[in-house]
């Protein structure tokens, strides 16, 4: 998870710099708060599982938490990677495809969310003009 968090921070920082953003402590501190929250939450789950003498289920819950975090942060990493690339190049298209698969295909697996996005006209693969490191 430390590697995923570090890659997310690095890609967000580089994508922001390529878009002309300046260094922002507030934006960085939000990222570090998210990391702290994740590690405190997983530690709390482990401690609770230990005191309930149920370590096996605790490991399963932490695996799910890590899977959700990896999906969320990898989506953000790929989006920032696409922002860093020159538009309409081959790598930009590859990054766009990976981002499409990570976002839209996962949305299809969540009941009613894909239908809701279609009725509201929301496109989950739209690029943002700002890079994010959170």
Describe this protein's structure.
- This protein has 134 residues and is mostly helical.
- Helix content is 76%, strand content 0%.
- The protein is built from 5 helices and no strands.
- Helix 1 runs parallel beside helix 3, helix 2 runs antiparallel to helix 3 (55-84) and helix 3 runs antiparallel to helix 4.
- It starts with a helix and ends in a 14-residue tail after the last helix.
Apparent shape = globular
Structural category is mainly alpha
Q: Figure out the total of helices.
A: 5
SSE pattern, N- to C-terminal? HHHHH
Nearest-integer average pLDDT: 82
- Biggest sheet statistics: none
Question: Could you tell me the number of beta strands?
Answer: 0
Helices and strands, with pairings:
Elements: H1 2-18, H2 25-51, H3 55-84, H4 90-109, H5 113-120
Helix pairs in contact: 1-3, 2-3, 3-4
């Amino acid at each position: 998870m430390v590697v995923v968090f570090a890659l997310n921070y690095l890609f967000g920082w580089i994508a922001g710099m390529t878009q002309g953003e300046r260094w922002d402590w507030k934006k960085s501190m939000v990222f570090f708060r998210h990391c702290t929250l994740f590690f405190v939450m997983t530690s709390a789950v482990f401690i609770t599982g230990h005191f309930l003498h149920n370590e096996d289920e605790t490991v399963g819950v932490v695996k799910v938490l890590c899977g959700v975090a990896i999906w969320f942060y990898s989506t953000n990493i790929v989006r920032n990677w696409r922002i860093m690339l020159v538009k309409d190049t081959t790598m930009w298209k590859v990054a766009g495809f990976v981002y499409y698969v990570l976002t839209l295909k996962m949305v299809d697996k969540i009941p009613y969310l894909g239908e809701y996005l279609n009725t509201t006209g929301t496109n989950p693969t739209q690029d943002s003009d700002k890079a994010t490191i959170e």
